[in-house]
Amino acid sequence: MKFVDEFRSPELITKAGEEIRKLADPSRHYRIMEVCGGHTHAIYRFGLKDLLPVNVELIHGPGCPVCVLPMGRIDDGLALAAEPNFIFAAFGDMMRVPGTNGSPLEYKARGMDVRIVYSPADALKLARNNPGKHVMFFAIGFETTAPSTALTLVRAKAEDLQNFSVFCNHVTIIPAIRAILDSPDMRLDGFVGPGHVSTVIGCRPYDWIAKDEGKPVVVSGFEPLDILQSIVMLLRQLRNGEAKVENQYKRVVPWEGNRAALRAMAEVFELRPYFEWRGLGFISQSALKIRAGYAQWDSEQRFTVPGVRVTDPKAAQCGEVLKGVLKPAQCKLFGRECTPEQPVGALMVSSEGSCAAYYNYEHRKPVTIASAAAF
Amino acid sequence: MATIPAAKIRFREPQIEMAHGAGGKASRRLVEGLFAPLLFGASPGPLGDAAHIQINGTRIAMTTDSFVVKPLRFPGGSIGELAINGTVNDLAVSGARAEAIVVTFVLEAGLPTEILEAEVRAMGQAAEKAGVRIAGGDTKVVEHGKADKMYISTTGIGRLLSGVEISPQSVQLGDKVLLSGPIGDHGITILLARGDLDLEANLTSDTRSVFPLVDSLVQAAGAGVRWMRDPTRGGVATSLNELARDCGHGIVLFEEKIPIRDSVRGACELLGLDPLHIANEGQFLAIVSAELADTALQALRATPGGEEAQLIGEVREQPESSVLVTTLYGGSRIVDMLVGDPLPRIC
User: Fold this and answer.
1) A-chain residues within 8 Å CB-CB of B328?
2) CATH number for the domain including B131?
3) In this model, does residue A373 exceed pLDDT 50?
4) Across all residues in chain A, what is the average pLDDT?
5) pLDDT tens digits, residue range A138-194?
6) Same domain membership, residue B273 and residue B250
7) Which of A310-324, A358-372, B8-22, B246-260 reaches the highest mean pLDDT?
8) DSSP bridge pairs for A32
9) Is the same domain home to B123 and B87?
């Protein structure tokens, strides 16, 4: 098993597409939300929309950890790291995200020491190798990346490494889904559940979506066949009038989640009483904060954070796109004032942002090409 | 000699960023918006890999390039070889046989002599292998910290091959896209050689002179060759997007036809990179007329080093000025130029 090729087999994908067309009731218009930005990208990258019938509509959810951060938090992080002996370390995805006075890459060009790291452990290594500097790791991500941040903090504490801290912007997925379902604008039929978050939290946390809200959830992998199969499973449930949580990504996601990861998170993090999300407003118990026992390594507890609230530019409709109310191309700034080179909001530059996915893969596609499988 | 009237500068950015050197959109903005108006006047025409100059009735091609590579040595080559092969290739894809190269070294004070010696030796060997003369050069030494060990800059001249007239304007609907071999080897090798990632792969840079392949192609199918380019920084996607923009047509690629080694695919999957955006140093693209496409392909495959050549796509009316990749199962996506360097993803 190669784990990639089988899930990209043209024959199986074509079959899944046919199955979807068979299952989709022509008198219904299905609105299915894929929560995770990684799924949005996969859908556009593999051209999966081309295989869906017109009445199966995919709505892009807020599962992009960079996109949901208000600009003020980016500014805060950059302000903290503006000190002369600081190193600002973050994942590559953060580098082009616009703050009020520029992105981390632009700050780098102006002389700030900004480094791309591939994991928080790399940031820790930077701190060990640069004793004269303070390394601030700008931590982002849903529950997918929180455990590795937690383990890094455990290690930092064990080594008593003084020149390292984490600016924590981890958020949790369930409150975001709840906010979507509570929103009066949304009418959804089901969810393609986040694949990688679920490797940590398991499938149980989605039970209430099926039981209380009556919407089916299928936790999905990221290959084309995974996503199509998940849609097949959702349509089957909808046809049978069922609403339950299913795991399509069994080869990676354990139903009970990853106990060790959850323990590490509980050791290091606690929930903030509330946190501001771009587009969704203030949501209680939706973000992680570093516990007092690790205060030494919490940038917010060790240094003074400006904490300025910055609202998005008036014309930008990042919030509505994040909620799925608007498609990227429906935002007034899309492709004009807001492009990957001159982004107004993070959605246009993040590898999980739906605007970026749409801009890069889809929006100049001619309608006619899409259905011609004849070459 | 008439002065070229300077045209209006369209480059509005207040400072130069790394992205401006990455070979993608930002680079293009800088070249088209600042350099071209000031140096080439109001209507410079499409910017190619090499300039064609007439001297007393003889047409020669001239190109320049600079090499800023880290690390200096990597599996499959080093900066010295890249410098020679890169220059030879720029001339080759503009339809010329490289005759002579001059080299400038900008060296950082403190550079160990043995490192310099190794690179100069590598350059000599690469030049001999490529059949090109290193005719001279210049050296500058800058303070420690002002150059990443060494920067190399080259200028090469070559004699234009007969039987080939290439320009984006000659590209027609129905023409085929020819690729000389697997893509992504060089860029991924460099990325892994930097040691930032805990990834290993049995991969080497593909740096080599593509002139023998270009020569075979021109001899077999010269009349049908419309355009050629070596997809270095920015990858196949950038080269083809530039062509699409210059000729106004659409370029449709068939994903299953694009040759990519498993190790490159694997590394790209892990990092969230698209092989079409990754630099190559030993491959080239050609647009060939439909009638001569198969002849062209066979000519490449029969030449040592061209065994993995493939026809990977064709020129169509839609999508205008853009590049589209299609899959066997009927899906498709637009492939654009990158803004700056490819950045690996988070989760």
Assistant:
1) 10, 373
2) 3.30.1330.10
3) no
4) 92
5) 999 999 999 999 999 999 999 999 999 999 999 999 999 999 999 887 889 999 999
6) yes
7) B246-260
8) A58, A190
9) yes
Chain B hits for A352, Cβ within 8 Å: 345-347
Of all residues in chain A, the percent with pLDDT exceeding 90 is 74
Gap from B248 CA to chain A (nearest CA, Å):
14
CB-CB contact of A294 with A309 (8 Å): no
Asked if residue B271 and residue B309 are part of one domain, the reply reads: yes
Q: CA B238, CA B276: separation in Å to the nearest integer?
A: 8
Residue ending a domain, choose from B108, B125, B160: B160
Q: Which residues make beta-bridge pairs with A217?
A: A191, A245
Amino acid at B178: L
Token code pair at residue B278: 């990754």
B183 and B53 part of one domain? no
Poorest-pLDDT segment among A126-135, A156-165, A312-321, B132-141: A312-321
Per-domain residue ranges for chain A? 1-300+307-313, 318-374
Asked if residue B146 and residue B62 are part of one domain, the reply reads: yes
Q: Is residue B126 assigned to a domain? A: yes
DSSP B299: H
d(CA B160, CA B98): 9
Nearest CA to CA, how far is A44 from chain B (Å)?
A: 7
B335 Cα to chain A: minimum distance (Å): 6
Domain end: B113, B138, B160, which one? B160
In terms of pLDDT, which residue wins out, B19 or A33?
A33
**Is-contact A104 A116, C-beta < 8 A?**
no
Closest chain B residue to A363 measured between Cα atoms?
A: B334
Question: A18: how many CB neighbours lie within 10 A of its CB?
Answer: 11
pLDDT higher at A269 or A105: A269
**Residue A221 φ/ψ, nearest 5 degrees:** -80, -175
Q: How far is B67 from chain A (nearest CA, A)?
A: 21
Q: Give the distance from CA A39 to its chain's centroid.
A: 9
How confident is the model at residue A374, as a pLDDT? 32
Would you call A373 and B333 a contact, using CB atoms and an 8 Å cutoff?
Answer: no
Q: Calculate the dihedral angle through the C-alpha atoms of A320, A76, A36, A251, rounding to the nearest 10 degrees.
A: -170
CATH number, domain of B314, equals 3.90.650.10
Q: What is the pLDDT of residues A76-112, one digit of tens each?
A: 999 998 888 999 999 988 998 999 999 999 999 889 9
Residues A122, A115: Cα–Cα separation, whole Å = 10
DSSP for A243-307 reads --EEES-TTT--TT--HHHHHHHHHHEEE-SEEEETTTEEEET-BEEE-GGGGGGBHHHHS----
The answer on pLDDT for A370 being more than 50 is: no
The token pair that represents B251 in the structure block:
């370029």
pLDDT along chain B (347 residues), means of 10: 64 86 81 88 68 86 89 91 95 96 95 94 95 95 89 95 88 98 95 78 93 97 95 93 95 96 90 91 97 97 97 96 91 84 59
Contact B78, B86 (CB under 8 A): no
CATH number assigned to the domain covering A1-300+307-313 = 3.40.50.11740
Which residue of A lies nearest to B271 if distances are taken between CA atoms?
A: A118
- pLDDT, residue B42, reads 64
In a shared domain, residues B173 and B224 = yes
Tell me: do B134 and B83 sit in the same domain: yes
* Chain A interface, best mutation among B270, B329, B341, by max A CB count within 10 A: B329
Quick one: average pLDDT of A30-45?
A: 94
pLDDT band with cut points at 50, 70 and 90 for residue A134: very high
Same domain, B183 and B153: no
Residue contacts between A and B (CB atoms, under 8 Å): 124
Number of domains in chain B: 2
Q: Which of A147, A183, A153, A186 is nearest to A167 (CA)?
A: A153
For residue A63, what are its two tokens?
A: 């599962």
Residue B155, in any domain of the structure: yes
Provide the residue range defining the domain that includes B249.
168-335
